[in-house]
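User: Can you recover a sequence for this backbone? Please restate the input before giving your answer.

Assistant: Of course. Working from this structure:
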């Protein structure tokens, strides 16, 4: 289970990340969206799993403090979401899928702001 790619669903009301550490965010809650080529420096895992390159759960990072990771760190890039003063970083099956997801997510968040 910990090694499955993150499943993401776009809803009319927001974005849903599925799985054990999944959550749903409304479009209004999403404060910032970025595409990262590298993960932040991970100091410790505070709650979750680290199976090979698959990181799911909460981790302490040097750059951002506590973040939720739903990533396969061997398959950059990564989508960075800032939501309600918390940070979620995730990716999906392939780099191409993650980049396409980022484009759609950015457009939806921007559309919500205008």
């Amino acid at each position: 289970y910990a090694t499955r790619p993150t499943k993401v669903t776009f809803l009319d009301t927001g974005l849903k990340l599925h799985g054990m550490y999944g959550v749903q965010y409304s479009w209004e809650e999403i404060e910032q969206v970025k595409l990262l080529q590298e993960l932040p420096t991970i100091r410790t895992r505070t709650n979750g799993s680290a199976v090979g390159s698959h990181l799911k759960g909460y981790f302490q990072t040097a750059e951002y403090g506590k973040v939720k990771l739903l990533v396969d760190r061997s398959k950059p890039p990564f989508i960075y979401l800032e939501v309600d003063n918390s940070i979620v970083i995730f990716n999906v099956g392939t780099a191409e899928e993650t980049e396409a997801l980022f484009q759609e997510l950015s457009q939806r968040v921007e559309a919500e702001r205008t």
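That completes the design. The longest strand covers residues 42-51.
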